[in-house]
Amino acid sequence: MPIALADLLDEEQVILKLRSRKPANAIREIVKMLGSENGPRKIANPQAFLKQVLEREQTHPSVVENTVTFPHTRTDLVDEIVVGVGRSRAGIPFGENQQRAHLIFVIGVPERLINDYLICVGTLARLVKDQTIRSRLLNAGTAREFIEALTTETL
Fold first, then answer.
1. N or C, which end of the chain has less CB nearby within 10 Å?
2. What are the φ/ψ torsions at residue 76 (nearest 5 degrees)?
């Protein structure tokens, strides 16, 4: 069954103005939003989830392509694929090459859904390679516009 990004993302899962300037802090900011009692509450144990994402970043740093990066973890701390997005106008240096990422997609996937995860990341990566879509994401004025830029294209 195909994965619909519209089913994985909603406006509460998008931060259009990340305050953080360092990778670990940006990831923390996005995870905090995902685990917020007042927000989407997609992660029951945000601290443990954050630890797993940061540990993976230490051993396998996320690559930045087209100013986009996908820090992630395979974990049993989530029951379904979880995606949180942060946007940084200045960009945040990620990975071994310290390339600046303007869009950070933090993804958590249950161990049992690895194929769905690969489809999800593949779809996101394909979409953000498109300069028009990436431009819409970088210039969206609202979280709704951001989501629409990802979900209104033909998948």
1. N
2. -95, 10
Q: How confident is the model at residue 154 (pLDDT cuts 50, 70, 90)?
A: very low
Query: CB pairs under 8 A, 24+ apart, for 19-27?
Result: 20/86, 20/88, 20/92, 21/88, 21/90, 21/92, 22/92, 23/57, 23/71, 23/92, 23/93, 23/94, 24/54, 24/57, 26/86, 26/88, 26/92, 26/104, 27/53, 27/54, 27/57, 27/71, 27/104, 27/106
Q: Which pTM does this prediction carry?
A: 0.92
Q: Flag whether 2 is in a domain.
A: no
**What is the span of the domain harbouring residue 104?**
11-151
Q: What is the CATH number of the domain that holds 29?
A: 3.40.930.10
Q: Which residue's structure tokens are 């701390």?
A: 77
Instruction: Please count the structural domains in the chain.
Output: 1
Q: What is the DSSP string of 13-35?
A: GEESS----SHHHHHHHHHHHHH
